Amino acid sequence: MPKKKPEHYVNNKELLEAMIVYRTKVGIAREKFIKKYDKDPPKSGVWEGKPRIPNYLGECFLKIATHLSYKPNFVNYMFREDMISDGIENCVQYIHNFNPEKSQNPFAYFTQIIHYAFLRRIQKEKKQLEIKTKIIERTGFDEVMVIDNNELSGNNAEYNSIKDNIQYRNR
Q: Which residues contact 134 (CB under 8 A, 6 or more apart)?
């Protein structure tokens, strides 16, 4: 008995058809905008008469981003939800750049967009962590954060004053 081929979570053919339909609607709305205002609408962003992105495309972006976040190089980050949000936002931002005449693979196109969005988010978070670390080092609180078993004996005056301040604030 032959093995059944597993179904993919996003069907590339359906995604391509949905992209073609969406691009057609955008083209029609663009022509109406040009006739009405005698100027080109902005390439990206919202302009009068521009059709909304269909729910199916949004669901596909969400599925691609979510499944990509399960890859071993992305799965252990605390900010995975932010990565997914950035990926979806970038897909919506660059949806108009996909050209079905050049490529018949929108899945790969949007996967790449999401992948690079993930990498940018990781870089942003690393920079933020470095900034936090420098702030802690410069204020001198890094010495308070270090736990040394010899200093936890209660004999250290600094430790006792910190402990007293914490207890006073918790009252």
A: none
